[in-house]
């Protein structure tokens, strides 16, 4: 199928009134302040509807969603079982404070704890991922009586005060002009073989040297000052970096050796994204705290949380936990989580995500990498993939520079624009295109999106 045929066969959503789209756009531009954006440059597409792996605008143009809306709608759009569960819950009880026991809240916590490894048996619910990390860090500090927290360069942990300080991406510290949120945070380099900081040439070397570097950093910071190490089990926003074998187990061992709390940030990697309930399952590692959000209910109603080990829970048995949220364990969000987890189980979505990665997306992306000189590396698992673009395959010079501005970003912007034109909605982050469709994407949908991407990458090749 050529890209034109692809675009035509997939381009129509339901017929709607385009003038309504103009009104939606006008309200947005007059009154909305957008996240992570220069407000003058924002030009959002008014979205009229969404179903399955597609959404569409008021002109009826349909997009195949390879973004999962901030890598979040792991079950796609408008899943009927989850929509029905939210409606039923709304009819029964919309809000009851977390001081009360509530059926869906308890059931969601039981299901989530049941999926988590080891003795992580309790859940504190939050409204999203950043809040989950804020609370995990607070728990670790109280539990250990220490203050410093170690986090990786090339990470994203959320946009609130502590979470942005943990985030190892200085581009994002503008909103904290003096960098104050980072106080008490120590950053270190995690493994990233394609651009190894440790001059490693094999995964085994990268893993061993990254662990040696981490241990050195712990020793020079003073182990007795370090409350926690927080790590994305698979680094998401900063590059879909899969840890080499042995790395996470090594982090676990260092945490045990020095009495440090291991916080696994599974906000993006959890609930099927990596082809497993939690990405740590791939390496059979049990952290002390797991933070989650996004896929737990596909974001149909905001929900996040911290899954807590028995040992850390014990710290708060007789000691008040000085933290909480008005909306903690919101019944609508918890009802959506119960229905989402059940739908994922009943419909085999975790297996589908794993199979897609192994049999469809991974092999096709490797073919694409071989055909395009602009593709430096493809990496991923499940429905969690990145294509890293380079200007020079030999030197691995990035196609666009880190923190590039204006025309510097043109090569990637042009690839993304071509995808959108052809009806594919991808995610991109500086020199990478991320391929992150929902877990229940069909083989045909995945191949269709990758065909569009394949064609669009010719634009990137022209810059090599
Ligand atoms: N942690 C990770 C790994 C994330 O990817 C994100 C969001 O993308 C967050 C935390 C923050 O989550 P939220 O935007 O729900 O606060």
TrEMBL record:
User: Cofactor(s) for this protein?
Assistant: pyridoxal 5'-phosphate
An example of a Pfam family matching this protein is Aminotran_3
- The question of whether Nucleotide-binding is a record keyword is answered with no
Any single GO molecular-function term of the entry would be:
transaminase activity
Q: Which domain of life is it from?
A: Bacteria
* InterPro entries the UniProt entry points to: Aminotrans_3, Aminotrans_3_PPA_site, PyrdxlP-dep_Trfase, PyrdxlP-dep_Trfase_major, PyrdxlP-dep_Trfase_small
**One term under GO cellular component:** cytosol
Q: What PROSITE patterns does UniProt report for this protein, alphabetically?
A: AA_TRANSFER_CLASS_3
Keyword presence, Transferase = yes
Which UniProt key words apply to this protein? Aminotransferase, Pyridoxal phosphate, Transferase
Family, per entry:
Belongs to the class-III pyridoxal-phosphate-dependent aminotransferase family.
Q: What is this protein's record name?
A: Aspartate aminotransferase family protein
The species this protein was found in: Actinokineospora globicatena
Q: What is the lineage of its organism?
A: Bacteria, Bacillati, Actinomycetota, Actinomycetes, Pseudonocardiales
């Amino acid at each position: 199928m050529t890209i034109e045929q692809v675009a035509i066969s997939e381009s129509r959503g339901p017929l709607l009134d385009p003038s309504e789209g103009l009104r939606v756009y006008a309200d947005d531009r007059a009154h909305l302040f957008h996240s992570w954006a220069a407000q003058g440059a924002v030009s959002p597409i008014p979205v009229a509807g969404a179903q399955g792996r597609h959404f569409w605008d008021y002109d009826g143009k349909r997009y195949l969603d390879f973004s999962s809306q901030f890598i979040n709608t792991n079950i796609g759009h408008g899943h009927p079982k989850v929509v029905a569960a939210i409606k039923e819950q709304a009819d029964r009880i919309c809000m009851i404070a977390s001081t009360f026991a509530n059926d869906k809240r308890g059931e969601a916590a039981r299901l989530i704890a049941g999926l988590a490894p080891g003795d992580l048996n309790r859940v504190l619910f939050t409204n999203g991922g950043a809040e989950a990390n804020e609370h995990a860090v607070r728990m670790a500090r109280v539990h250990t009586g220490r203050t410093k927290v170690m986090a990786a360069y090339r990470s994203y942990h959320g946009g609130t005060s502590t979470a942005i300080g943990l985030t190892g991406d200085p581009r994002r510290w503008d909103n904290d002009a003096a960098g104050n949120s980072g106080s008490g945070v120590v950053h270190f380099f995690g493994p990233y073989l394609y651009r190894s900081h440790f001059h490693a040439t094999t995964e085994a070397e990268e893993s061993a040297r990254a662990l040696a570097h981490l241990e050195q950093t712990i020793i020079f910071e003073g182990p007795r000052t370090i409350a926690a190490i927080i790590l994305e089990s698979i680094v998401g926003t900063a590059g879909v970096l899969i840890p080499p074998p042995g790395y996470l187990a090594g982090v676990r061992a260092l945490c045990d050796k020095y009495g440090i709390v291991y916080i696994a940030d599974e906000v993006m990697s959890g609930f099927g994204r990596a082809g497993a309930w939690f990405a740590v399952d791939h390496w059979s590692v049990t952290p002390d705290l797991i933070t989650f959000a996004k896929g737990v209910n596909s974001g149909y109603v905001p929900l996040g949380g911290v899954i807590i080990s028995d040992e850390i829970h014990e710290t708060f048995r007789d000691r008040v936990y000085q933290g909480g949220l008005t909306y903690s364990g919101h019944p609508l969000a918890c009802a959506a989580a119960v229905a989402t987890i059940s739908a994922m189980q009943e419909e085999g979505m975790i297996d589908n995500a794993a199979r897609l990665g192994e049999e469809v997306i991974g092999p096709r992306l490797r073919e694409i990498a071989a055909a395009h000189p602009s593709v430096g590396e493809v990496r991923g698992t499940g429905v969690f993939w990145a294509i890293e673009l380079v200007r020079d395959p030999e030197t691995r010079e990035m196609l666009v520079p880190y923190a590039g501005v204006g025309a510097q970003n043109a090569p990637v912007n042009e690839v993304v624009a071509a995808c959108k034109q052809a009806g594919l909605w991808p995610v991109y982050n500086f020199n990478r295109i991320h391929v992150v469709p929902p877990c229940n994407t069909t083989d045909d949908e995945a191949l269709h999106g990758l065909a569009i991407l394949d064609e669009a990458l010719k634009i990137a090749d022209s810059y090599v």
